[in-house]
Design a protein that fits this description.
alpha+beta
Length: 277
């Protein structure tokens, strides 16, 4: 089961409990505590805030949104019946553990299906893409790249921490990640396809990487399982780490120099004091 589903399921199962526990914490001896808000209440919402029918409907929306995020085909009429029965003290047709297990089993089945479909699409794409002009294969049908713009200067090497700009997309072109400004990436702390694909790039070079799920996130993480990843990358600096070290060293030297000046000033002050004495 993926972590996103687990998180959503936990949200559903704890929503009611969370609200009840919040009720006990919402007021202290000093008065009501601050609570997070997603929007500024209008006069209309404030005036209806104590109307049980309005609050009940809004609460239904909260539950509905979270149920939808699970991807399970809930019978909403039965969901409502379950809430009503629980309020009336009628026993549930399943225990909480059985309910969670049933939903989990359904999600695992769907997760496996999506994983297999995405893997097949990724492998088909890379096989066809390998025959495209300008495509270089670093790992056969696993990792490919195409140079969009040549660069000059220093070259990115293994274990470097280059300063880059990037945009990551899925096969359908949907963006899943993009740098807002220049970012330093440690090649020892990123996915294999990214670290291997960027090695050899020169400063100023722009390259497109095509990464097989095996060299990406596979079936882990929050992205759709076995997604083929495409990265548009521009190298600004081949290795930003040494520059940072120099900045730190320069800052340290400056601090030490200031300390030395302070010591000299203190010594002069002592001399002046002794002279007075």
């Amino acid at each position: 089961m993926n972590r996103k589903f687990t998180s959503n399921l936990i949200t559903i199962m704890t929503l009611l409990i969370g609200l009840v526990s919040f009720q006990s914490r919402a007021f202290t001896e000093e008065g009501p505590v601050d609570t997070p808000e997603t929007s500024t209440p209008t006069e209309e919402t404030v005036s209806t805030a104590t109307d049980p029918s309005v609050v009940s409907e809004a609460f239904g929306h909260l539950i509905g949104k979270n149920l939808e995020s699970l991807g399970f085909e809930f019978d909403m009429a039965k969901v409502v019946k379950g809430i009503q029965d629980a309020s009336a003290g009628i026993e549930s047709p399943m225990s909480e553990a059985e309910c969670v297990q049933a939903i989990s089993k359904d999600q695992e089945k769907k997760f496996k299906k999506v994983s297999e479909e995405n893997l097949a699409k990724a492998e088909e794409f890379l096989k066809i893409n390998s025959e495209t002009d300008g495509i270089v294969s670093l790992e056969e049908n696993k990792l490919q790249y195409k140079v969009k713009e040549q660069g000059e200067g220093d070259v990115v090497q293994e274990h470097f921490s280059p300063l880059i700009k990037y945009k990551g997309t899925f096969l359908d072109g949907k963006v899943f990640g993009e740098s807002k400004e220049e970012e330093m990436i440690s090649l020892d702390e990123t996915i294999p396809g990214f670290s291997k694909g960027i090695v050899g790039m020169k400063e100023g070079e722009k390259r497109t990487l095509y990464i097989h799920p095996e060299f990406g996130y596979g079936t882990s993480g929050y992205l759709p399982p076995n997604s083929l990843l495409t990265f548009e990358i521009e190298v600004i600096k081949a290795n930003a780490a040494p520059e940072q070290e120099e900045e730190v060293a320069a800052t340290t030297d400056s601090i030490e120099a200031d300390d030395d000046d302070a010591d000299l000033a203190a010594d002069d002050a002592d001399d002046d004091t002794n002279a007075v004495r």
